[in-house]
Amino acid sequence: MMKIVKKTTAVLVTAAALGLSVTACGSSNEPASATSGTTGAAGMETTKAAEPQVYEELPESEEYTSVDGTYKVTLLKGLEQTDMQLQSNSSMMGLDGGSVRGGFSALSLGSPKGSVPGNPDKMENLEDFADHAIGLALDGTGVTVEWEDMEAKAPEGAGPCLARGGKATVNGSTGLAYGYFAETSDRYYSLIIIGNDDDVEDAKKVLSLELLDGAQTALDSKAFIRGMTAVLDTVNGASVMETVRTLTDMGADVSQLDAIKTQAAQSLADSWGIEDPAGLMEMADQLMNEGHNKDALEFLGQFNGTEAADRAALEAQLEGEDEETRNSALAAYDAWSAYGDAAIAAWDLSRVGTIMEFGYGAGFCTYEEALDKCLEAAKIAQEYFNSWEEFNQSYLYGYAYWLGEDPMDADSSTAERAGIVDTLSSQANGPFSVDWNTELEKEW
Fold first, then answer.
1. Which of 23, 61, 379, 400: disulfide with 331, CB 3.0–4.6 Å?
2. pTM of the entire structure?
3. Which CATH class is domain 10-27+59-216?
4. How many angstroms separate the CA atoms of 125 and 272, rounded?
5. CA dihedral sign, ordered 89, 95, 98, 104
6. Which of 279, 320, 327, 272 is nearest to 299 (CA)?
């Protein structure tokens, strides 16, 4: 699994963040009444002269909306926003103080519960999500925080929420850290802030998290391409290509990018035998022209599968074969029965995107070259299949054929991936909500 890495910036060197405003935390910044009372010995309330009230001037604030339109954060004005859509249905947003507030940084995340970036092993409740989100934000940055639970109020439209705050330390410098976490019936949200004391105090006065309705699914070619690799991106925890792209745009440390480059190159060499740019492009073309789909049809032909009267007849013919052979032949037969010569082509076409993601991460191609090849595969997919349902089923048949698994086995890897498909398909703005008939064209 490719680990998500967050840039270590100078902002984090001065560490720290704290609380939420009235909207998020339930604290009150309202001025006191103009008069206050005391109770005398006779139990009669007496009054004292009204004292002039000092109304604190709030720092200038600004609203920052996630790229997918599912939430917005109100924070200090003038922060530099970086959008990170590491998965097609999850949106991260970095907010950096830059030269104006050099000790301030924030990272927010909104994600469906069924496909949280980073591929967490355990995600049973909001506390688990909070632990995971903190790890995404701070692991590898050198920042350590002594976290303590704090009271918090849920934003409108959310259910449970929690907050954590504490002292943050990095390279001998100290500050404060604050994390706010909320959930709805189907999504998680987090906001983690790091900053020096003065900026944190200002941020506390204006900070809020607002959940937005009516998020729009992207209808462009890149969104379609992301749908084709959505299952494996969910397994990996993020799109390798978009992760590297984001880190590059943010000016990530060379060591971070080198670590990903090494992992990506090793994965291509070990799993695909790809060791250079020419090998990458050759394999992508092979997947689009032949791939495992050709192998599956030829394998099925060895048992006269395309001539069998029905599936039962093929099963009878496979008696005496080992379990893996039977499973692969039946998966190929089911795919051929459903999609003819396209059979398990979706399995191959999806993996065009996979190797191009890793190829970009390994430095074997540019971002544009990776997307160009993915676009070719996407156009072929539209020719072969009529919907995401067909594409995904062909993909699952291909996965079962490749592993020699029975997809009806609840403990199989194929069943696990089928579960991911179901989860992603159920998401209102998920990767498969993109119109299958989207006009595909180069937009980059």
1. 400
2. 0.76
3. alpha beta
4. 38
5. negative
6. 327
